[in-house]
Amino acid sequence: MDVTTPRGASLVLGAVLVFLLTWVALHHFTQREVGWFAFLGSLTGFSLSFLIILLVPYDISQTLSGGDKVLMPFSWDMMYWASFLLCWVTYPLLSEYEAASGFTVAGRLMSLRSTWCGLYVAGTVLLLLCLVVGGFSVLAPWCLAMANAWALLVSSLLMAYGLVAVPRQFWRQASPSFELKRLYCSAVALDEARLGTQYELQDTIAEARLETAQRSAQFWDPSLERAFALLQLTMEECELLHLELTNGVPGRPHQPACGSTPRRLEQAEDVAPRVDYLAQLHGALRQASIEARRTACRWEELINRCLLLEDIEVRIFFPRFWKHRLFGPGALYDGTGARESLGGPGGPGAPQFPCELRLCQLPVLRTAWHKLVVLWLSILRRWKLPRQRQDGPSNECPMCRRQMLKDCRTEGSLFIQRNTKCLDSGVGEKGLEKGFECLDLEKVSTSQVDECSGLAASKLNDDLYWVNNDSGAGPVLYGIRKNGQHVARLRVSGAGANDWEDIAIGPGPTKGKSYIYVADVGDNYRKRGTVQIYRMEEPKVERGRNRNDDIRVSAVRFDVTYPNNMKYDCESIFIDKGKGARKAGTEGRVYLITKGDNRASDPQWRGGDVFYVDLPRESASLSWQATSTRLNLVLATGADITPRGNLIAVRTYGEIQIWPRPCEWSVEEALSKQPCGVASKNEQQGEAIAFGKDGDHYITVSEGKYPKVWYFGMTQRFQKDMMDKAKAEAKAMEAQKVA
């Protein structure tokens, strides 16, 4: 090709211009974290794609004019082989390289042990073997046959896709309602993937933060220092990304959890494996950030697409005339600045029938139609695409507006798992007692709750449950919704955290106020003769508050000693309240149930013993009061009482039992009767149980990261039957006493 000719010069100038424009566009949209390897690979691919558009008209003109016979075949060959190398060699290795561990280019290249490398090696060996055995004359026909077969297959697929799928896609895209239905279904899986990647990023950041916090200042090595510096830089970038994706405010600096064991000081022989571990952690951070950013971008695009289609559907649903007549003033602007009159008879957009005009002018019909449309839109958006998740998911069936329980199919719910069934059907999950409804809600959304041991329903806040971690987690409580959404963090001052096992909500020294009770009573090895109970006023949690901003409260400490120098392991407390407590004068009394492990011969290990203590207004040293009541169970891990005090629940790892408590009975009398085994789930290590604020349900949570929240609704008939049976038994006991 002669570049001095107008055609040659224009071709070269066009190629340079395409390359520069592509570089400017990519540089504008590329994030600063992208390395120059990835940028160069993307620039090459986009430039080749745009050069095809440039070469096609030039090739046609050269063919028609009988011009250059060498340049165009060479150009297309170069384009083909360059695309082949980019698609099958460069891009797969580049994607692996971007997510690879290592702090240097050589280290990241050495860590590429993927299936692509194996395929490349196998293909190279096979190619060399064919060349050695038969030469190029034998290999060429096979390559041509394989290329033709591949081209025929791709052409058939693309032709079928172009003739059927593409027109069908455009046809369906013309219907906003159909597109919305499709997007609503895909939103479920996409939202779960988005949250999963954010949780994974959060866990990886926490692991990296812990690793940098345990860095030893007494040992210095250049490679180790470089590894820590790069890990710290990547961790800070990932933290900013996590805050951006979660729309959060920068929280408090990370503090290592209480009881964490620091890593021993590095020695010279430990440098290489330590650097390798830091490299793996660095790669995990990069991979988690890439996945979190990708899923968040897809979610944002889906949200914007849904909002646009909803607006389009509304505009289609309301023609301009009806929208104007029902909602607008007497005239509209047509977008060009000219006012379009719709009021006069016979004018543009005027109705053809006088009855329409009269009906549209009736205020009653206009208001009714407006309310119906707004209700329809609000229900659609609340069912299909909730904008915010702070209030938790709806526990209602989208088809009949009733609550849901397991084993029925409901499509389109974003936050409640499918497999649900309406409560009014009266059919429960297999293994559930009649009168109970099980609802499988979401998992606890924060990794900070990784060993949930106590659970209590807030009295001041709707749909809020306070939870605590087991030993070694510090004096902190977390507020969650029934759907597991983390909404608050409560930091307790004036309290230690040896082994917090359970919490409870109940009355206290000031009438009308709600108090949180924390039981620091865990003692697996029976070494503590004195345990602690902490009491604090329950705070009000405002809606929209940043969940990572600490709510600080001060606790009153009570040291309580077991009688007869005994030592027990306990994980269950509850606070007496309700009409029965007021009648017996035991309101605010703290009850404790020992855990045990079925060693019936030793009172310290048998479990099921019940103690109580009455707490004064100020901090004091007290003693547990023993009762004559002993529950016929072991391994009690949680307990609670309804706000009315009419039901007492105690759970173990494998079951939940409920005792009815009429107002004529004390707690000791109620617990001495036969309990009712109720619905439960086979959780990994279930320790937490709490009745709801209204006492019509209870929820359970197990230990572990992101544990599921299980909701069990109690029907009114079940509660009434239990109370009727207990009252009949109470009357019989009174009759026996009189006799």
From TrEMBL:
Domain of life of the native organism: Eukaryota
Keyword Translocase: no
GO cellular component, one term: membrane
Intracellular or extracellular location(s): Membrane
Residue ranges crossing the lipid bilayer per the database entry: 12-29, 36-58, 78-94, 115-139
Membrane topology type: Multi-pass membrane protein
Key words of the record: Membrane, Transmembrane, Transmembrane helix
InterPro entries: GPCR-associated_LMBR1 (IPR051584), LMBR1-like_membr_prot (IPR006876)
Family named by the database record: Belongs to the LIMR family.
Name of the molecule in the record: Uncharacterized protein
